[in-house]
Design a protein that fits this description.
Blueprint: H1 2-6, H2 12-24, E1 32-33, H3 37-44, E2 53-57, H4 64-79, E3 85-89, H5 92-95, E4 103-106, E5 109-112, H6 114-122, H7 134-161, H8 163-175, H9 182-200, H10 208-226, H11 239-252, H12 259-265, H13 269-283
Helix pairs in contact: 2-9, 3-6, 4-11, 7-8, 7-9, 7-10, 7-11, 10-12, 11-13
């Protein structure tokens, strides 16, 4: 595998341009990417439409961090009773305006990634976080940052940097969407991109044991914050509960090779109870 991947460096330019031309031509949206808060605010002031579509990768090709964010968005929309149609596409990553998943199509607009979708919904005055004071809201954002900076980076580390998991799971899942030679080229490109991000954040200097210890400390902080409450901020779930549920669900139901993370999570029963409560009260309702 390493020998085949080694040839990919010289064709990275070809891969980038060919792939985007090929996959973007499959399905073009008459829309713009909402990257500025002003645009989000103006569009968010309108009512939630009935024809919202949530796009994600086909589940059998999902890589853990992307899958966790997709589940988090689904959970957030469901706990706020927001209707959407779920559509799985093999080329969803290339359909996304930011190249990241998931994304929603809402009228003429496309909003990608968990944070931008939260902002879009929040600007409609929707969500239990609307009832928070400034201190609570800042507290919620701090813990969401903890989840993203530790759990999500740990997932990226395990999936793309930890060799045994990459070779046995990630490479096959990610590359199987593409035909040869793109299966090698684009998977190599993605691995380089994620590794570069992890290197900037200092995660490539960590051993796997250090990563697992970071996850343990993260879960401990979250567990202490939750304490004996049904959800992090009272009787109703918020953006934080939805985000953590997405990551915990995907880790606990993921491949056996990722259960080193799952074993850590299982040591925090109140976090598990919160996820079970959210699932029973909001996700299993018809």
């Amino acid at each position: 595998m390493d020998d085949n991947i080694a040839i990919c460096g010289g064709v990275a330019y070809f891969a980038e341009h060919f792939a985007h031309e090929k996959y973007n031509s499959i399905w073009k949206m008459p829309s713009v990417l909402l990257t500025e808060s002003l645009t989000l605010e103006l569009e968010g002031q309108q009512q939630w439409p009935d024809d919202v579509t949530l796009y994600q990768q086909d589940e059998k090709y999902q890589i853990l961090p992307d899958y966790a964010n997709c589940i988090a968005v689904q959970t957030f929309l469901k706990i706020n009773n927001l209707k959407f149609e779920l559509v799985a596409k093999q080329n969803a990553e290339f359909m996304s305006p930011s190249g990241k998943l998931p994304f929603i199509k809402c009228g003429a607009f496309v909003i990608a990634e968990y944070e931008s979708i939260l902002s879009f919904v929040s600007n409609k005055g929707i969500g239990t976080s609307q009832r928070m004071d400034k201190a609570q809201w800042a507290d919620m954002r701090a813990y969401m940052s903890l989840v993203n900076n530790v759990l999500q980076n740990a997932e990226l580390y395990m999936c793309w940097y930890e060799k045994s998991y990459y070779d046995s799971v990630t490479w096959y899942r990610y590359s199987s969407v593409f035909s040869w030679p793109l299966n090698y080229i684009l998977t190599w490109q993605k691995k380089q991109s994620v590794t570069k991000k992890l290197k900037v954040l200092g995660w490539t200097k960590k051993t796997k044991d250090q990563v697992l210890e970071d996850v343990k400390n993260c879960c401990h902080s979250l567990s202490e914050r939750l304490d004996k409450n049904p959800y992090f901020f009272g009787e109703f779930p918020t953006e934080l509960d939805a985000l953590l549920y997405g990551h915990m669900f995907c880790i606990l139901t993921g491949q056996p090779q990722i259960q080193e993370l799952g074993s850590i999570i299982k040591n925090f029963p109140n976090l598990l109870e919160m996820c079970n409560r959210l699932e029973t009260n909001y996700l299993m309702k018809k």
